[in-house]
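ugh finaly. both done.
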Amino acid sequence: MSGHLEFYFLITDQISKEKAEEIENELIECEVHGKIRKAFICQHLNTEYKTGFEEAFETNKGMELNKDEDFQAWCDECEKERLKTNGWNDKSIEYAKN
């Protein structure tokens, strides 16, 4: 039954080729996630073993962000240090470097 469905797209905005290239240039190619927006992550996050995953703010797949908002994530151990030192500061950043 679902093989007879039709899909329609309504285009509500048009952008220039230059704007499309600007948007494309802001993306990176991730071997795990595909072509996505840049993210700043702690060096302990990896795909080989679990380290926990903390984010700067709650996110969901496909959500739109303002241009000045960045994805940020860090491991559970860095989160413990961040909480112990009352946020990201010289001491917690130094810990994250190790």
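ok and the 2nd:
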Amino acid sequence: MNINTLYQYYLKNPVICTDTRKITDGCLFFALKGENFNANTFAANAIEHGAAFAVIDDVDYQVNDRFLLVDDTLKALQDLSIHHRKQLQIPVIGLTGSNGKTTTKELINSVLSQKFKTLATKGNLNNHIGVPLTILEITSQTEIAIIEMGANHQKEIAQLCQYSMPNYGFITNIGKAHLEGFGGVEGIKIGKGELYDYLKETNGTTFINKDSEALTEMGVAKNLQNTLFYGKGFDNFLSGKLVKNDPFLEIEWIYKGDLYQVQSQLTGIYNFENILAAIAIGLQFGLTPNQINDGISTYSPQNNRSQILKTKSNTIICDYYNANPSSMTVAIDNILQLKADSKVLILADMFELGEEAFLEHEIIVKQTLLNNAFSKVIFVGVYFKAHEKHQGALFFAKTEELANYLQKNKIENSLVLVKGSRGMKLESVIEYL
């Protein structure tokens, strides 16, 4: 089946499902394959549960004309998203970066939705499947789309740009994330810089944090033409400064000589630049300062990213959706600057660091034990436990062991940073804090 024919089916049934547990009536079910599953085997089940059609790539499962046969279901999904994107005349904002992608995406969405009907990437659907699915959610009612693009190796952002075709974009930062796949920090610059390459080729507009030497150098090296800078300097399109971090960020920002101030519901000095990015994009799309500030001040994180949680005993900074050396370092720096009589660190392993894993975990251990600012420091995971020779901290190999310890040794009246990679399942220990 060619893409034009498949697109006609999509227009009549514009809801896409890839999971038979989440079938909605009248949807198009795409039978994708994975390492441990072949969704062609579930196609009939999808039809039984209400799917209008099932897109399959195995003729053995083509029971009747409700089973649409293609050569490759994943490629068909991706090609369908490209075809759909080409029909759209709306602005699409693409963003990537080592840290802060999702928080910044949500901030931008909160700001722009004060004026426009927006669509933004849901959760972490930011890969070769998630981006096409997000594009295919764009309807005639959508006025602006915000597409998050994640990557753990080079050429991936370039591929995601082919699906989303952003005409605006920016990189949050360059940090030590997915070192294994990218082959080091220089490899990360190349991989993330593929967004700059696409925007240059298509004459798109790029937002750059001028306070970031890496991003500024990348922009200059690529000779980007349509660039808007934001940062602390007064020579920027937008300038701002951090007023307060106690624990929520309050910032001042200046645009065309006028001064504005906004209180956020985000903690972490590293979110200052994310807030500035959202303000800059709001200004570019013609929002008033009041609309922009409303979007910033009303956004409350609910996804374990820079999220403040108050329990009966403690105040917890929940930042365990993901972790890498860069985000871990700034999170530790941030809690050092917050006011509290007792500060506790609970830090878990960082994944996808490859050969750098041992060294990067040791750097974090040394950083935390450099001074006596913390009442207690706890590390969990096999990477951190490899450094238990260092005095002044507790080390556990497994999250379950940490949970048992916390049940018997209560932490009270403390500000607690809980951070680690998602696979460490740190959410399971929150109930004991």
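summary for the 2nd one i guess: The chain has three domains: 3-72, 88-298, 307-432.
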